[in-house]
Amino acid sequence: MKARIHRPSQIALLLTAVLLLGGCALLPIGEQARLRDADPGPEIRPGAPPEYDILVAQSHQASGDLEASMAAFERALEKDPDSAYIHRKLAIGLIRSGRPAKALEHAERALELDPDDPRTRVFLGKLYRMRRNVAAAELTLTDESGEPINQEAGALLYQVYLESDRGERAVDIALWMIEVADDPIKAHLALAKAYERTGEFDKPMELCARPSKSSRTICRSIRSSRGLREIEGKRTPNERSTAKSSTCTPITTRP
């Protein structure tokens, strides 16, 4: 059974806003201002709902006080320990404060509570990338069919494969990105880089055979990549001429 997801509702946030005013929201405007200026009231309110602490945390985030923000999220978590939302928010704060191990604990708990949340899965995938845990990143960033859960997850997994010298897997992801990406030029460049890692330096130039304007742009971008420039410099004039005049069918699927 899927765990219930705890997120602050609009009504709860409105009630929390009243609490943040120190209970003076129903007073005349002038009296409200006098009371707030004199004594804003204690920030820590054990009897308040978790939404109050979430709003306090967000206020501290906006002002750049990371430690106070995390303290407020921790108070909210004490009141609602099964909130995937709070676990994820706390994990983000912890990674920003340089505590990746603790962030990983909360991110993994957030995923347990809400396994279908793509934001949590991508964030957790980033943590696994930092730890060079390729297997965990794959499991987190892909669906049951083995494909990335979304474009952001695909781009992240592509980087994971490049950094771990898994060139063939990077090629597979790049081919997937070409099919689904909003920016085909960027996806084709990713494919070219992946082919460089596998040593298949002629494969990217096969994309230039397409007689479309976009393919010409892709071809120019591929030719300007650093890795291919280095390879071109090592070829003989005859090899370079052969590569440039190649009319092979563009690669769309991996053999």
Order of helices and strands: HHHHHHHHHHHHHH
Enumerate how many helices there are, as a single number: 14
Radius of gyration: 26 Å
Mean pLDDT: 77
Beta content comes to under 5%
> Architecture of one domain, CATH level 2?
Alpha Horseshoe
Task: Write the CATH homologous superfamily of one domain.
Answer: Tetratricopeptide repeat domain
* Strand element count: 0
User: In terms of quaternary structure, what is this?
Assistant: single chain
Largest sheet: none
Short description:
With 255 residues, the chain is mainly α. Helix content is 65%, strand content 0%.
Features:
single chain, mainly alpha, 255 residues, disordered N terminus
Description:
By secondary structure, the chain is mostly helical. The chain is 65% helix and 0% strand. α3 (50-63) packs antiparallel against α4 and α10 runs antiparallel to α11 (184-198). It is elongated.
